[in-house]
């Protein structure tokens, strides 16, 4: 078979290498390509936050001390003015932290221009300045320059508690990051090469470690597929792999049991088929070759064995259809008490000629919603099983009881009983309690599997209670009709 898919080893390798590539790309973008943009955004946000915090504390008695603390912490210059008219203002306080601060070197007219711009912009305005080497000072810019010293003035116009108009200006300097970017560039080249080498080594190591137990399990599964059930699945290192190995070991064990039970079933069925066929052939040849043997008794023997053979074949077909879901189940109101009575009528000949006693115990008639034909089939199989394995007294007791919304139909025998460790297995397909073949007086020996399948279809329950040396009681339960 041709396989075009990648193995888990190479898929893991590809995923981990992709993850490494994504991490490296993110590092290059954040530390080289967009470092200046990120740094500038953080600095501008820092200026705005500082200005708004100072504005919130403008009415504090020690506002200047607070502003100085903010300025020292964030390297800011601060100037606060109380505006009396559009061209007249009184200085409230100032913080001079930066060298060559624009707030303290800008003329009065430029400050009022910033005030007008802030008022026109809704009470705040951000102004950029870049350093001019020729003039040895800062000039106005659009903030798009890269790799240069920049100075930013953020202005804020607001009112204090006394409804006085306050004009607050905050100045900060953004240092160029070109040298930093260049340093990071060379560092990231070295780091990227080291990370890729390390990632390749680790990926190969871990992909081998992860895929190795899975490959071993796959090899064992191929052996199992050939029909060798003695294979052992070893899974170690990971919880999921260990659980898979345990599940496959369990499956192999169950398949081994099933295969053995199937072999036993074929042997038993072959024996049951051979017996009536031998009888039919033997009596037919006797009637053909011996004069006077064409009598009703011999013909009846042939008919009985043919019926037994038909019953066996029908049971094999029934269990196959039921367990494959082919059989129909058509529920309708059924008087289960009358159904049991009708089923017991079939055993009149057995009780009269062979000395069997079959009792039926019940208190009142019960109605359920079920398929009468299928339930009759289940009852026949339970009674046949009890007749086959009952004790020397040849007594079978059928009882009907009602409890907790269910009607229970029990069939008890007085036979040898079943060992406790085998009780959970007797309903399984192909299972036989004893390996010594015992041909049933009535039925095929496949009854219990048929009963369980019918109960599954009827949404009912089945079970068994048994004591070694004292007999067994098999029961089925059906929900009462509402």
List the helices and strands and how they pair.
Elements: H1 8-33, H2 35-56, H3 63-74, E1 77-85, E2 88-95, H4 102-105, H5 108-120, E3 124-132, E4 137-141, E5 150-159, E6 165-174, H6 178-225, H7 239-289, H8 296-323, E7 332-335, H9 336-345, H10 348-354, E8 357-361, E9 367-370, H11 372-389, E10 395-403, E11 406-412, H12 447-457, E12 461-467, E13 471-479
Parallel strand pairs: 8-10
Antiparallel strand pairs: 1-2, 1-6, 3-4, 3-5, 5-6, 7-9, 10-11, 11-13, 12-13
List keywords for this structure.
13 strands, 6-stranded antiparallel beta sheet, alpha+beta, 52% helix, elongated, 5-stranded mixed beta sheet, 482 residues
Mean pLDDT: 82
Oligomeric nature of the chains? single chain
Secondary structure class reads alpha+beta
Distance between the termini: 56 Å
Biggest sheet layout: 6 strands, antiparallel
Strand content: 15-25%
What coarse outline follows from CA principal-axis ratios?
elongated
Can you tell me about this structure?
The chain is of the alpha+beta class. The radius of gyration is 48 Å and the shape is elongated. β1 (77-85) and β2 (88-95) form a beta hairpin. Residues 435-443 have low confidence and may be disordered. α1 packs antiparallel against α6, α2 packs antiparallel against α3 and α9 (336-345) packs across α11. A six-stranded antiparallel beta sheet has the order 2-1-6-5-3-4, sandwiched between helices. It has a five-stranded mixed beta sheet with strand order 8-10-11-13-12. The protein has helices at 8-33, 35-56, 63-74, 102-105, 108-120, 178-225, 239-289, 296-323, 336-345, 348-354, 372-389, 447-457, and strands spanning 77-85, 88-95, 124-132, 137-141, 150-159, 165-174, 332-335, 357-361, 367-370, 395-403, 406-412, 461-467, 471-479. The chain contains twelve helices and 13 strands. The two termini are 56 Å apart. Helices cover 52% and strands 20% of the residues.
């Amino acid at each position: 078979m041709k396989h075009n898919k990648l193995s888990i080893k190479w898929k893991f390798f590809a995923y981990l290498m992709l993850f490494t590539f994504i991490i490296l790309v993110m590092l290059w973008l954040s530390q080289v390509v967009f470092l200046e943009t990120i740094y500038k955004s953080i600095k501008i946000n820092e200026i705005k936050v500082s200005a708004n915090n100072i504005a919130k504390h403008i009415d504090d008695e020690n506002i200047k001390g607070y502003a100085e603390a903010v300025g020292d912490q964030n390297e800011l210059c601060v100037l606060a003015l109380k505006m009396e008219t559009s061209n007249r203002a009184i200085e409230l306080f100032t913080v001079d932290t930066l060298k060559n601060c624009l707030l303290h070197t800008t003329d009065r007219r430029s400050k009022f221009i910033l005030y007008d711009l802030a008022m026109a912009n809704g009470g705040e305005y951000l102004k950029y300045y870049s350093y001019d080497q020729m003039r040895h000072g800062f000039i106005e810019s659009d903030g798009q320059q890269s790799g240069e010293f920049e100075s930013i003035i953020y202005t804020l116009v607001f009112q204090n508690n006394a409804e006085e108009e306050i004009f607050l200006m905050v100045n900060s300097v953004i240092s160029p990051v070109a040298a930093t970017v260049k340093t990071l560039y060379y560092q990231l080249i070295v780091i990227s090469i080291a990370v890729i080498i390390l990632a390749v080594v680790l990926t190969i190591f871990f992909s081998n470690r992860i895929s190795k137990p899975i490959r071993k399990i796959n090899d064992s599964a191929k052996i199992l597929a050939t029909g060798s059930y003695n294979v052992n699945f070893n899974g170690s290192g990971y919880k999921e792999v260990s659980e898979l190995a345990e599940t496959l070991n369990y499956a192999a064990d169950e398949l081994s049991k099933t295969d053995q039970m199937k072999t036993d079933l074929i042997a038993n069925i072959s024996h049951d088929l051979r017996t009536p066929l031998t009888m039919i052939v033997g009596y037919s040849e006797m009637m053909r070759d011996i004069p006077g043997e064409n009598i009703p008794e011999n013909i009846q023997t042939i008919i009985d064995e043919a019926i037994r053979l038909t019953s066996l074949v029908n049971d094999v077909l029934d269990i196959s259809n039921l367990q494959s879901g082919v059989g129909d189940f058509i529920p309708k109101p059924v008087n289960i008490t009358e159904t049991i009575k009708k089923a017991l009528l079939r055993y009149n000949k057995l009780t009269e000629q062979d000395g069997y006693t079959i009792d039926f115990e019940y208190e009142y008639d019960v109605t359920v919603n079920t398929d009468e034909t299928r339930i009759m089939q289940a009852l026949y199989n339970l009674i046949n099983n009890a007749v086959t394995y009952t004790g020397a007294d040849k007594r079978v007791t059928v009882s009907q009881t009602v409890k907790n919304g269910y009607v229970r139909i029990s069939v008890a025998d007085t036979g040898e009983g079943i060992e406790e460790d085998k009780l959970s297995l007797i309903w399984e397909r192909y299972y036989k309690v004893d390996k010594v073949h015992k041909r049933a007086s009535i039925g095929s020996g496949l009854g219990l599997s048929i009963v369980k399948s019918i109960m599954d279809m009827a949404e009912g329950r089945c079970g068994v209670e048994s004591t070694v040396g004292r007999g067994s009681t098999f029961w089925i339960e059906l929900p009462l009709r509402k």
